[in-house]
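quick q for whoever's on today - can somebody do inverse folding on this one?? i tried earlier but teh output was garbage lol. tokens:
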């Protein structure tokens, strides 16, 4: 269950990271409210996952999911680069997340 909670914490991290792009420096109310709510949800779920999972693993996976999702949405929504070296580096992040899941009990 903690891994599922951690996954959703990571998704909310993606939401607030991408949401920051739309806030225009927190001058737009709707996107700013969404971003702050996503931040709070992400941290709350992270705290729940930390009750069961080790700190180092939890934080690494949380930031990895956030990084992966943010890069993918940057490519899709904002036309950021999707060249081979960049995708290879993202693949390494995915491998790290999977590896930590495989070697962490709980």
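ok took a stab at it. sequence:
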């Amino acid at each position: 269950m903690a891994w599922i909670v951690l996954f959703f914490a990571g998704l909310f991290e993606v939401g607030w990271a991408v949401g920051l792009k739309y806030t225009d420096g927190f001058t737009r109310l709707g996107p700013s409210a969404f971003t702050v709510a996503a931040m709070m949800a992400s941290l709350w779920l992270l705290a729940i996952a930390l009750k069961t999972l080790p700190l180092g693993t939890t934080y690494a996976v949380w930031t990895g999911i956030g990084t992966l999702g943010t890069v993918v949405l940057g490519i899709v929504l904002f036309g950021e680069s999707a060249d081979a070296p960049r995708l290879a580096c993202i693949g390494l992040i995915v491998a790290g997340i999977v590896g930590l899941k495989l070697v962490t009990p709980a």
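fwiw The longest helix spans residues 55-78. also The chain has a mean pLDDT of 95. so keep that in mind when u check it
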